Amino acid sequence: MNTTKNTTISAHHKVIVVGSGPAALTAAIYLGRAQLNPLVIEGDNPGGQLMSTTAVENWPGELSIMGPQLMMNMRKHAQHMGSSFMLEMVTAVDFSQRPFKILTSKNKQLTADTVIVSTGANPKRLNCAGEQEYWAKGVSTCAVCDGALYKDKKIVIIGGGDTAMEDASFMTHFTDKVTIIQISEKLSASAAMQKKVLENPKVTIIYSAAVKEFLGNGTHLTHIAYEDKRSAKRIEIPADAAFLAIGLTPNTSLFKNQLELTPYGHIVQKQNTQTSIPGIFAAGDVVDSRYRQAITSSGSGCMAALDAERYLSCL
Q1: For position 60, which CATH number holds?
Q2: pLDDT at 299 over 70
């Protein structure tokens, strides 16, 4: 790993957790409880995806809790257990030998005996015509962030999974003109999430439709063009806002030449939560391409912490 003359060397850590979502904070809680005093490098989006989520109703023990509040509670819990936090980005890593090295955005070089990678994932984009032109001008991936701006407007949700269902349900609080565009012939969301949307008269679903273009007046989105896959016809519908909910890309580009990754960019786990390098563990959406739930991320963070603790005890 290359460093500059301005690099400063911080104290060595037994374990560093990279990330700040449910996986990272759960790992930090367990590591802190084991008196390992972990350092959590939070990145540029502390709290992860739940910071842009409204009511979480499937977290055990909480009938309903706002996403940001849940993450703040978890962070406070980790801090109480002895974790310390650094609000910086990781810009480079060297996992070729111990102690492992991590370089941050403020030119701090950190060393650790073990590292837990839990950097999460980012929402995918369509990369179709007009998307970039109207990004933040009606097109975005965060209905929770921007939804209140579109009271009584025409809203389009693109996707058919749980996130799309949640976004659609959320937007019905502001308008009765919500349309879901799904590329497949059926929704892929869980049965409970589908039921909530299918029974809502404010939501219309267009199946077998591929979005081809975002159209506007130069300053804001006005229409969406999609191709009906059954007829191959191009159809345009009015839209004041469009929210993309088409999946996630794991934040693992930083580890491309350090850890073994799947063809889709997820970190490969060799034994339990251990990666291709002994002493480096991974948890959360960086390894999970199937479940992608806060609670499963949290559970994998617990497992990674226990594996790291056992690894340290053998050094």
Answers
A1: 3.50.50.60
A2: yes
Of the candidates 248, 272, 270, 294, which has an alpha carbon nearest to the alpha carbon of residue 25?
Answer: 294
On the 0-12 / 13-18 / 19+ scale of CB atoms within 10 A, 57 is exposed
Inter-residue contact 245 to 124 (CB < 8 Å): no
Q: What string of DSSP letters covers 242-268?
A: EEE-S-EEES-GGGTTTS-B-TTSPBP
Q: Where are the beta strands (DSSP E) in 218-309?
A: 221-228, 233-238, 241-244, 248-250, 280-282
**Catalytic positions, written as ranges:** 142, 145-146
Per-residue pLDDT band for 239 (boundaries 50, 70, 90) equals very high
Q: Quick one: CA dihedral 126, 131, 135, 137, positive or negative?
A: negative
Q: Is the pTM of this model over 0.90?
A: no
Question: Is there a single domain that holds both residue 14 and residue 70?
Answer: yes
Closest CA to 127 of 119, 138, 135: 135
Residue 1 counted as domain residue: no
Q: Verify that 82 and 138 share a domain, yes or no.
A: no
208 and 184 in contact (C-beta within 8 Å)? yes
Q: For residues 168 and 55, what is the distance between their CA atoms, to the nearest angstrom?
A: 14
| E strand map for the chain | 8-18, 39-41, 55-56, 65-66, 84-86, 90-94, 100-104, 108-117, 121-123, 139-140, 155-158, 178-181, 203-206, 209-216, 221-228, 233-238, 241-244, 248-250, 280-282
pLDDT on residue 128: 97
pLDDT, tens digit, 9 for 90 and up, residues 44-100: 889 988 887 767 888 999 999 998 999 999 999 999 999 999 999 999 999 999 999
Q: What percent of the chain is predicted at pLDDT more than 90?
A: 83
Together in a domain, 134 and 236 = yes
- In angstroms, what CA-CA distances link 14 with 37, 93, 116, 211, 244? 8, 16, 11, 48, 40
CA 295 to mean position of chain CA atoms? 13
